[in-house]
Specification:
This protein is an alpha/beta fold. The chain is built from 13 helices and 29 strands. Among the domains are: about 100 residues, no CATH class; about 140 residues, von Willebrand factor, type A domain (Rossmann fold); about 130 residues, no CATH class. The radius of gyration is 35 Å and the shape is elongated.
């Protein structure tokens, strides 16, 4: 049998302390004694000469002592959360050690080392692997190696700027290693496991999380960071907000916008369930970076947000475009023509492409779009007027084609910019160009901020970190596993922050924290102990009501 809350030695020591304490209470009960005096005139002298109360006397009522000891022992054992060790002597075991900013402090790393040594001792000779989970998983111990190697390798590791990939690693281990043989997964670290893990585990896999920290050890965690157009309506202004999760008093984050450091009076703070929302109103968006930092026992942690340079859409122009289209791109105040941005041209790489051939508009939507949503974007733009001015009569459906593809792009025939179509002179031209460029930009612009572990960019993109390392997406968008600034192939950049996922903030009673998730229908010993304690309390009430309890 093992215990989740405390070690077996601490549990046994608690039982000894309970037995000794109840024993002393039995002997230290205040008892009055009868004394005979010759006359009431000398009762004061008799009280002074004879002790009316005795604090220490012989042990009495042994059965009451046994009853109270059983009751207290049941409650203590229930609090220690015992586990039956039926299947644990067979099968493989995997220990996942969180190596993130949450375990970066000296006290946290010492606590992890102690729990790792204790867990390795409990597993004994079972085939055990130990993995450190940060931005990437690193093997600390392979099956068959001496357990001391895991501790030495852990001491040599440096914490990584990630929120801890323990939940993702549990899913991977379950998918790759679960089978008929029992698999025991032990997670060591302060980050709670998501409640969704309950439903995904097969009966042969059991997961438990070990962490001996208290509320004082818990530090605030960045949960989200973003911006939106200013509610005040000011042009080129945004409202920035970020969420900190934690307990106790509100933390004091360091907030920097560009080179300016914001003071506490510049932030609006609102208490919410499980944390705080900080808001910065009417911040001029000029392409600067917002940095939110927290300093705690694990060192300094930062999240970054790249603000837009105003709200002008960056456009990259190539090749020989029709004169009317060139004039539109130069005249639209919401567009910024430069060396980066949405590509407008004649090559196959262009998102908005001008092609030769018959007068047609071809709209290709991506896998995440659907035909109805695309029609809602481009309907009612006045294409019927364009076709009436041309040579085909009312043939709108044959001239605007919408079809699925790998990514969004639009092809417009160069004939539409010449006579007899008069496309430039109709109301449809500015409406269509504005809708088309904004629709295309939604799929090509990088996010202002991203979270470690979430996909960034498009399938096949490559991210390059500041340290020169690259992250590739093979058929899928690349997924950065550590915080930092990453550059995309088109020259733009995205800030990736170690934001803690919202699902990690479920109440402990609903998460997998400090629980074994197993099937088989076995009743938890804690329930039996709690039921026994409740039965004894009812029995005590009955004996007391009948006057049989000494």
């Amino acid at each position: 049998m093992s215990f989740v809350t405390w070690s077996p030695l601490a549990t046994a020591s608690g039982l000894v302390v309970l037995a000794a304490g109840l024993f002393l209470l039995q002997r230290l009960r205040i008892r009055f004694s009868d004394r005979a005096v010759p006359t009431l005139l000398f009762w004061r002298e008799a009280v002074r000469e004879n002790r009316a109360r005795v604090l220490v006397r012989r042990f009495r009522h042994p059965w009451a002592y046994v009853f109270l000891l059983l009751l207290a022992s049941c409650l203590w054992l229930a609090a220690s959360r015992p586990e039956l060790r039926g299947r644990e002597t067979s099968g493989a075991a995997v220990i996942l050690v969180e190596n993130s900013w949450a375990t970066g402090g000296r006290s946290s790393r010492s606590r992890v080392e102690a729990l790792l040594a204790e867990t390795l001792g409990e597993l004994g000779a079972r085939p055990t692997r130990v993995l450190a989970c940060g931005g990437r998983s690193k093997v600390l111990l392979a099956p068959g190696e001496p357990a001391a190697l895991a501790l030495d390798r852990w001491r040599d590791l440096r914490p990584e700027s990630a929120h801890g990939m323990t939940a993702r690693e549990v899913d991977r281990i379950v998918d790759e290693e679960s089978g008929d043989q029992p698999l025991d997964v032990v997670v060591i670290g302060p980050t709670p496991l998501p409640a969704a893990l309950h439903a995904s585990l097969p009966d042969s896999v059991r997961v438990r999380r070990r962490w001996s920290g208290t509320e004082k050890d818990e530090v605030a965690a960045l949960a989200s960071l973003g911006y939106e157009r200013a509610a005040s309506g000011k042009p080129d202004a945004v409202d920035v907000s970020f969420v900190l999760r934690g307990k106790g008093e509100a933390p004091r984050p360091d907030v920097r916008v560009g080179d300016a450091v914001l003071e506490s009076e510049d932030l609006r703070v609102e208490r919410v369930n499980g944390g705080w929302i900080f808001r910065i109103d009417d911040l001029t968006a000029a392409g600067q970076t917002v940095v939110v930092g927290l300093t705690g026992p694990a060192g300094r942690r930062e999240a970054r947000l790249q603000l837009p340079d105003g709200f002008r859409l960056p456009i990259q122009r190539e090749g020989n475009l029709p004169f009317g289209l060139e004039a539109y791109l130069a005249a639209d105040p919401d567009l910024e023509v430069g060396r980066h941005g949405l590509l407008v041209g004649r090559s196959e790489k262009a998102a908005f492409r001008v092609v030769d051939g018959s007068a047609r508009v071809r709209i290709v939507y991506g896998a995440r779009d659907d035909l109805e949503s695309v029609r809602r974007v481009f309907e009612g733009l006045g294409w019927d007027e364009v076709w009436r001015e041309g040579e085909g009569g009312d043939d709108e459906l044959g001239r605007v084609d919408m079809e699925p593809g790998d990514a969004r792009r639009i092809e417009v025939s160069a004939q539409l910019f010449d006579r007899p179509w008069h496309f430039l002179d109709t109301e449809a031209f500015p409406l269509f160009m504005a809708a088309a460029l904004r629709w295309l930009a939604d799929s090509t612009a990088p996010p202002a901020t991203a979270t470690v572990g979430d996909p960034v960019g498009r399938p096949g993109d490559q991210l390059e970190g500041q340290d020169g390392k690259t992250v590739n997406g093979v058929g899928e968008p690349p997924v950065p596993l550590a915080a930092g600034r990453f550059g995309l192939g088109d020259g733009t950049a995205v800030e990736v922050s170690a934001l803690l996922p919202a699902e990690d903030f479920l109440p402990p009673s609903k998460s997998a924290s400090a629980q074994r998730l197993a099937g088989g229908g076995r009743i938890d010993p804690t329930l039996w102990l709690g039921a026994a304690a409740l039965a004894m309390l009812l029995a005590e009430w009955w004996f007391t009501a009948k006057g049989r309890m000494p």
